[in-house]
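I have been asked to look over a protein record a colleague put together. Alongside the sequence sits a line of tokens, each denoting a local backbone shape. I have pasted the whole thing underneath without changing anything:
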Amino acid sequence: MFTIGAEVSSGVLRAEGGVLIRAGDPVYEITYGSGASIDIGGGYYTQPEVRTLATTLVAGSITPYALLGYGSRRSRGLGFVVDAGAAFPMDAGFEMSATGDPAVLGSARFHTDLETERREAEDDAGGWLSFWPIISIGLRYGLR
């Protein structure tokens, strides 16, 4: 992840804004053990019908952000800095995929259940899909 932004400061207070540039989307994958029972969107499956279930957080590779900060980055010596704000991804959502028995994974029932599960996950995430909090706390040492 890279950032490009601009900062305005007045004494120890700062405001910053810019864009985050991400290289890829994070993936969370569950691998089920032998004989496991799996509820996907209200449909019940067993391993090996479904071996893995992967959820990918999909958002644009460029995301705007804004921060407010406290602590001078220009003073000499040891200093404390803290920044808080958020990134605001555009059109963030989840994609889901699975591995397992091709006959089960190719069925209309499974596709409907997987889509139901994806929508439920987005509903559970709520506002967190469009608002990613950022908190940075640190110590710095200025040589200038």
